[in-house]
UniProtKB/TrEMBL annotation, chain A:
<feature type="transmembrane region" description="Helical">
    <location>
        <begin position="29"/>
        <end position="49"/>
    </location>
</feature>
<dbReference type="GO" id="GO:0004129">
    <property type="term" value="F:cytochrome-c oxidase activity"/>
</dbReference>
<comment type="function">
    <text>Cytochrome bo(3) ubiquinol terminal oxidase is the component of the aerobic respiratory chain of E.coli that predominates when cells are grown at high aeration. Has proton pump activity across the membrane in addition to electron transfer, pumping 2 protons/electron.</text>
</comment>
<dbReference type="InterPro" id="IPR013833">
    <property type="entry name" value="Cyt_c_oxidase_su3_a-hlx"/>
</dbReference>
<feature type="transmembrane region" description="Helical">
    <location>
        <begin position="76"/>
        <end position="99"/>
    </location>
</feature>
<dbReference type="GO" id="GO:0005886">
    <property type="term" value="C:plasma membrane"/>
</dbReference>
<dbReference type="InterPro" id="IPR035973">
    <property type="entry name" value="Cyt_c_oxidase_su3-like_sf"/>
</dbReference>
<comment type="similarity">
    <text>Belongs to the cytochrome c oxidase subunit 3 family.</text>
</comment>
<keyword id="KW-1003">Cell membrane</keyword>
Automatic annotation (TrEMBL), chain B:
<keyword id="KW-0812">Transmembrane</keyword>
<feature type="transmembrane region" description="Helical">
    <location>
        <begin position="326"/>
        <end position="346"/>
    </location>
</feature>
<feature type="transmembrane region" description="Helical">
    <location>
        <begin position="516"/>
        <end position="537"/>
    </location>
</feature>
<keyword id="KW-0472">Membrane</keyword>
<keyword id="KW-0813">Transport</keyword>
<dbReference type="GO" id="GO:0009060">
    <property type="term" value="P:aerobic respiration"/>
</dbReference>
<feature type="transmembrane region" description="Helical">
    <location>
        <begin position="234"/>
        <end position="260"/>
    </location>
</feature>
<feature type="transmembrane region" description="Helical">
    <location>
        <begin position="49"/>
        <end position="71"/>
    </location>
</feature>
<keyword id="KW-1133">Transmembrane helix</keyword>
Amino acid sequence: MDTAVTAKKKWWAGGYSPFNVNYGKLMMWYFLISDAFTFGALLISYGTIRFSSTSWPDPNEVFKSFPGAGHANLPLMFVSLMTFILIMSSVTMVLAVHAGHHRDKKAVAKWMIFTIIGGIAFLSCQAWEWTHLYHEGAWWGRNPFTNVDGTVATTNFTNFFFTITGFHGLHVTSGVIINIIILINVLKGTYEQRGHYEMVEKVGLYWHFVDLVWVFVFTCFYLL
Amino acid sequence: MSNEATLHSQQEVMHGAGAHDHHDHGHHHESFISKYVFSMDHKMIAKQFLITGIIWAIIGAFFSVLFRLQLGYPDATFPWLESILGHWAKGGRISPEAYYALVTMHGTILVFFVLTAGLSGTFSNLLIPLQVGARDMASPFMNCLSYWFFFLASLVMMASLFVQTGPASGGWTMYPPLSALGDASIGSKIGVDLWLTSMALFVVSQLLGGLNYISTILNMRAKGMSMTKMPLTIWSFFFTAVLGVLSFPVLLSGFILLLMDRHAGTSFYLSDIFIAGKALANEGGSAILYQHLFWFLGHPEVYIIILPAMGMVSEVLAVSSRKPIFGYLAMVGSLFAICILAFLVWAHHMFVTGLNPFLGAFFVLLTLLIAVPSAIKVFNWLTTIWKGNINFTPASLFSIGFVSTFISGGLTGIWLGNSSIDIHLHDTYFVIAHFHIVMGVSAFFGMFAGIYHWFPKMYGRFMNNTLGYIHFWVTLVGAYCIFWPMHYEGMAGMPRRYFDYSTWTSFNQFSGLNQFISFVVILVFAVQLLFVFNFFYSIFKGRKMTTQNPFKATTLEWTTPIHGIHGNWPGEIPEVHRWAYDYSKDGRDFIPQTEPLGPNESGH
């Protein structure tokens, strides 16, 4: 490694990218910061409304069902599974990016397929959870759950839950669609011809971001 | 050390290489559609933004003429109003509903469609690639999309003017509950939905544009163009884009929640409301929450409007006074400070909403802090032209006018930034006067300066100077005549947004003044039409540009051919060797940025 030369190089003097990345990756990073502000605003709105309310429903009571388990009391089990699936899909995405660095087309395709399956599995889980809650009487503007202290809750618990998890679900959906497009390009050999798999890296950034957002959504709605 | 080596050990990313090289010798065949409509050339996209902005400006300004007729002549009837507005102006008198629709659309159009998209959309697109030395934007495709999303937003907003129940009319801030409940007023019906849709499309357009501006400035600078060699225009566009990318998404979140409140039965912003004597079920929401979300964008938005104007004025003042800009780094530093503070002052729009006075104190402090970088900039502009050999072109006059209005409008901001004075002055004509002078008139002056100065770069011809001088003097004097008296009205407690003041005896003393203001508004509007005529006439018939660098400026855009080509430079991109402000140096009038430093010369 030629440390002396690289250290002296003037990265900001023009003619180079100062971060040594393509504009596309730079844009993706800035887009993610922007999108973080979108989610930040929604979650902070949720926080202000929740903390200005005297009481709030208990997530352990609301989210206690598991498909096929009847009326068994399994608080947060299902959402833990969902979270596990989504995080595993991030792992497979890392492996896809890694394989891309080695220009291993087959491995990239394989791990992209796993990532897409993970994404679809997460969305299916979310669909089940929404349907289940809907049948319990919960929806935008309708809240069957009572507060922890036994008082009647406002509808804002379900309003925020469906809006924010829905907005996140839309992000996952678009992520899955983008992943499928990238997978098709991988299989067509577009990136092999281009000589690098940077597109996989870029959608990987988006996918990890969507994952990270879920961690916050999960914390705010299910744990707190 | 080893860390840095690892970071950069991969192949270096150089912007000249790869995707953009095939644009080089821009003579490949282009159809009408790809050249003028779905163009991916930043120079054409800039013109698209500008002309769309001009059309919107005419509409938005015409609306102000209409509602000023009502304010100046509340008892008069104008039969021609009925022929253009129909039942909105029965008997030639604007109805209260129409009045509120007009003021709402005036604000929305001018703030977003003209001074955001029309101003920074035009000049960021035109100048960023030309002044940093790039063949085009980082992503020409996204740039094209950015314009067409703006166009779609424009179409939807335009459509809302023609629906049966009229456009949104709850004020340009679209506060709930008025905007959230369709039954609240006639202007809260489908007009608000169209308004929200249009604005969501607008946010997308801003995001696509902003990401492009940022990555072009960071990644695509020509060899030698370090960040501190960039003209101040580029710095201002950079900070503008950062502000937009970080604040518009918060507005979008606010709009999502508002749309839900309108159509999904939620109560994010609604609680304990009666409409027509009937109690609504909505409970637990907060109307103030919307105001926080709105002003978290809303305040940065005023800097999104003013920063590009500041950048262009800095450039035009240096060029036309043949002097280097005074305090270049201080200028960059104050832009940066304004950009940071922009995010920390939003609650000064909410001092009287019941905001905790203790919290208000911090927002007062942070608001007043903005006076520091603003004052630095003003002093630097004044010292830049001080003892300069000024060419009084229309562009330089508008730049000087900008400094004037920025001072007089900025000083009243110090009044309004104090929460205790705000108790008296909030929602009065004092506020109207303040923000129209400091961000409306000033931003327009910066925009006019930019248009007169870079018109030759856009169209290869000059605009007519005589018409330019008439335009400047009437607009400057007119703007002060319109807004200066409003300070007095505001201090006397005259509230904004009222339809008719004649029923209050305390405001009767202002009826003559209101007439005077309305008269000047009509005059100034007519002169803007003169400018529009000058603009379009000069595109086809203006004096032709015969040299590449008519203003003898140092910056890179004047090293490109008179008739712009796709790819900007016919050959290699020039290398940059010095900063952008070597005017009157070593006995020379100006030294272009492309000229290497002499043996006895030190860089700036």
